[in-house]
Design a protein that fits this description.
alpha+beta; 12 helices; 15 strands; 20% strand; elongated
Length: 549
Amino acid sequence: MAAATDAALTSGGVIGSMGNKLLLVAGVAAVIAVMVVFWLWSQQPDYRILFSNYTDKDGGAIVAALEKMNVPYKFSESGTAILVPAAQVHQARLKLASDGLPKGGNIGFELLENQKFGVSQFVEQVNFQRALEGELERSIQSIGAVEVARIHLAIPKASVFVRDQQKPTASVLLNLRSGRSLDAQQVGAVVHLVASSVPDLPAANVTVVDQNGNLLSDTSKKMGANNLDPTQLKYIDDIQQSIVKRVESIITPIVGAKNVRAEASAEIDFSSLEQAAETYKPNQKPDDVTIRSMQSNESKTSSGGAATGVPGALSNQPPANATAPISTPASTSPAGATPSATAAEATPVNSQKNMTTNYEVDKTVRYVQQAMGGIKRLNVAVVVNNMQVVDKKGKVTYRPLTEAEKKQINDLAMQAMGFNKERGDALTVVNSSFAGEPAEILPEVPLWKDPETIEYAKDALRFIVGIVVLFLIYSRALKPMLRKLTAPPQKLLEAPVVEDAIVNLSGAGDRNKLARQNYEQSLEEAKLMAKDNPRMVASVVAAWTNGNE
């Protein structure tokens, strides 16, 4: 009977020991798994935003590409951003950009690559128009101030009749970035970009509107209350800044950096002038005049031997025979004059002479067209700080400028600004001590409010908490389990010991302190054994009962 009891106790103890070991091994594995998971959590990398405000189609393509690259990712709480580890943000962006992601939801000419067989001409035209709009949207979105662009093209159907032909029109909706705006030149660039991309589209048929509903391409409202458009104001500002820059750059090497300040005021004439003049000057000196043409006419007629009287047969008779007079009258002709000469002088002669001379007229024809944007007057003011002097000991002092230095700076400023006395330009150079700029005192940020310190503290706290939790798990759970697994197997209590325990239960009392300790220890071991292996205890009790019988 004792042998049977020992065998039963031995087999039950082996079975209980094997079950305890399996439970311990499972517990050790679970604890180790918990420790690994907690350690990985404590070493989790910091995630940064890869892309945000993407379309669903782009989001699916980005996630698929990240999974293909084995890059961990997660979504933000709002679901509008994809987060990746901070160390892989830039690399992932470059890789996705090489794959054309994100596309921004715009469909370009790649739409024509998936053209189905047998589509109608109308569908082909619509697809081409959609592709053209998508390409223009991508081009306009490359402008820094534009976040999103939408383009609508109205392309009329071509007609063979000239009267029925219509020009295309385009509407552009721009969603600008926060705090950004487009000036007139940038709006004009967008208009010409769209007009140049669509055949037969004039620039006047392109309308540009921003997200607030402002019409940016309205040319009728360019002129303001002062009759100046933004381009003219910008032109004036550019001229003034250019003059200030030239003046300061030529004086700075003399007085040092930050020791000269200049301001310029320019009066610009934007009027357009066209003038035509024709001037006649007084006649020049006779010796300097230029003869253009000369005409001379001279005629002479004599009365001697000429026909006189009434025209006809009677007046056309030959002269009568000459007769000598009986007495010769006293002659008044000069001495020595021959009779024939005297007769000739006595014959009357008619003489006529005409001369016409044309001189060149001194005439000046002048045509003047004055360009817009001419400078009417310049006013420049220059303030120069006192000259810096460093003595042998390195001490820095300041002294006023001498008259020669002032004159030198004044001459340099006049040359740099393009001084013109006839135009009424004015230049003023003043030497004065500059007031020192007060040092900007930044409020000291407490250490617990410093963002960088907070990040370091978070990382350190997470690391420390991880180590503490791992230590507690090891000391409280893993170490006792490992100790039980590595401890030698305990010998099972023999039947006499159990019998002694039972006898002690019904014994006469407390013998001594040592016996009480043994009794309590035996009782606890019996309870533990009964709890771990009730079948074995039941068989032992049954054997005792049969023996007592």
